[in-house]
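Handout, section 4.2: multi-component inputs.
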Amino acid sequence: MSQQRMAIWAADEDIDEDIQDISLAIGNYGQNGHFDDAHIQPPQIDEQTLIAMQQHMAQQAAFAAIPDVVKGFIVHFYQAVLENNLAEITVAYESGWNKYTEKFYAKTEWPEAEIIAPLVNDDPIFLILYRELYYRHVYSRLQPNIDDRFHSYENSCELFNYLLNSEGPVKLELPEQWLWDIIDEFIYQFQVFCTWRSKVKNKTEDELLMLADGAGVWSSYSVLNVLYSLIQKSKINEYIVAQQEGKSTEEIAEIVGEYGVKPLYRMLGYFSIIGLLRVHVLLGDFTLALKVMDNVELNQRSPFTRVTACHVATYYYVGFCYIMLRRYPDAIRTFVTILNFIHRMRQYHTRSYQYDQISKTADRMYALYAICHALSPSRLDDNITNMVKDRYGDELARMQRGGEDALPAFEELFMYACPKFISANSPPYDDPAAISQILNSSPTASPSQRSTDLPTAATHTDPAHRHLRLFLSDVTAQSPVPTLRSFLKLYTSLGAKKLANFLDADEEEIVQEMMVMKQASRSVSRIGSEKGSLLDGQMITTSDLNFVIDDNMVHIAESTIGRRYAGWFIKNTERTQKIFDDLRHTPLPAPKTVAPAPAAAEASKTSGTAARKVAWGGVKA
Amino acid sequence: MAPTWFSPATRTELIENLVSGVDRYNPSNVGILEDYLYHQIRSQEYDCLANLAILKLYQFNPDLYNPDVVINILIKALAAAPAPDFNLCISLLDERLQNASLDEPDPLPPLLPILQGLHHLLYRCRFPAFWRAYRSDDLEALRDNYTIECAGFEDSIREVVIRAVKSTFTRIGTDRLGLYLDLNTPEDLNAFVEKLGWTLDSSGTVVNVPPNPDNQIEATVVQENIKLPQLTKVISQAAKV
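Output:
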């Protein structure tokens, strides 16, 4: 075990050699009697024992160095996992681990799994889980080296192997939050690895060698394979459909089978769908990302929304897909829903260790909302719009004005808020010639171009900049719209020629811009077809300013939105009713004397109705 | 983007299974999808998701990469403007090193900026400029090697024009429309207009565009519209008392 931990690739070879040596040795002693060979063996073994002993001593020293409270914690944690005691696991996972991280391991690794193994009876499953936490800590707090990157992949594989390829469903139970974190972290490490791998420069010789050998490590196929396997094993899609059809618990159990009935698999299955959504977005496949969500209903009532981090991530990636599909109204609706949710939940979450992550994602969604709002102005939610103005008021104003200043603002917010895109494939590390060619090529870093030309000539080739350029080319196409709009707002009809003169442009040019403007005021949206797939939708109008060209005359009509009272009144009526009901159901204060209680209740009832009569009268008067 | 965009009626069950299932990742299915693409090219059908599935396989398996297929996919996607199909395809084309192992020089790198330029012109409704660029000598290779094979390519671009014109105009001059459609003789234009079911006005120089939801304008005041479900709580409360 300990040898494996040191350097898995080197260790593998060692083991192979050992086996050869041993079988050879046996053969020699038993049959052929090649004395020479046998003679050479012992010193080698001695040397190995020596190393083993040294390692053993080092391990013992490391073990001794672990603070007693941490040892106690690990034992306790192990017991909780062993007994499938969800409450205790949750406490250990959500508070214990973080507490001791802050106290002892803020800047160093937790003890390696082999060192604490004696504490947990060498339980392989617990050690896998422990390593899951160990590596997550390395990734989030420290700088993972290439061994960490390779080993964390292996540990994930071991974990998923255990879950998927044991005989029947495993007995293990884990808190939902942890299950989400396992999937989330798996994809995060994949993304980090791909980003790191794509930078050929600054790699050491060892790293280049290991990358050349380890082509399968963190491959896109292997990651997708895990996620799809979890989805299929858990029959989560079948589960969701059955639930939507209102099937009974027994029927659902029948449908989803022995794996799907277990919360562990069901949750992992659901989180894997969200994981797929994310992986597809990272790889730039926005349609497929939404397609894997076909069965998932986006709403707040689903039982899967209990893990806030998952809920927030889902909306972030769905919203982003809509931006890349040019469905800005749908993106806006997605962000508004979740940002309101986060806003409401904030009070409960400030103490959670994920709060930082959630508020960072929220901040990026405010930025994306600003982008959508500039491209497709709407008055959907003043509350969120105001919060966006607080954060990105300057950028929003620049984007809304259009023209020269707008593009850098779009770029800035997009690069800040977009997912961390990755390349599906590794640079050709297995081809030393190609690699040295890349290493010797001149650096490609140059500022991305900001002209209003087609932004394809820019030289950044990393995935994020590729998507940025596509997005900016859409934005560029729309850039004359704000100016046109501001002119059209002043008229009900106007000759195209006159408009062209105002703008100091060619009439034909303006007419073509007007077609762009028309196009920009239409969008496919799920409004009105909310039940179907996320890709579904119908064409809607997104602008309050409508116009039409009659030969050379532009006619303009503006829609205004009347003030909305109903929602406010309904909300407050309901609230008042609730207060009233609560009051009525509150027991009266215990009577001091032995007064006739029923009479008092009777009185309060009548006074209740009486009071309301008065209120109604008051309104009338 | 019609409702059938992500599932066109012409898609066969075999393709549907590939597009919607995990079999889409199986490299050995790429041939089926490529055949389907060439079927689309011959018979003026279009299935964006199936074509994206090809690009996905190329993304994961660089050795499958076939530049002609990619170029054909992009040509088909051009005609989907202003829907985002073209950019969705481009998104899946990872940065690719010059592949020295190909026998012939890769035709995609020189054509890619050209196709993107054409798409940008279409997306910005610069139709006359599109036709000028498309007919230019520089694009001879694209025309002779690719678009000529794509049945009805020019008409499919004209449909892009019609979509834009239909939603913007109630009446449009024949000269202008001819320029947008690249139909330069009155006979060609009249035949095309007639096929659309549009009519010329009495002077013969202006085409009437039939009314449709996008070219009808009306100043409205959007009043709020309260639906019964919003009031269920209030009403049920009233019923209780």
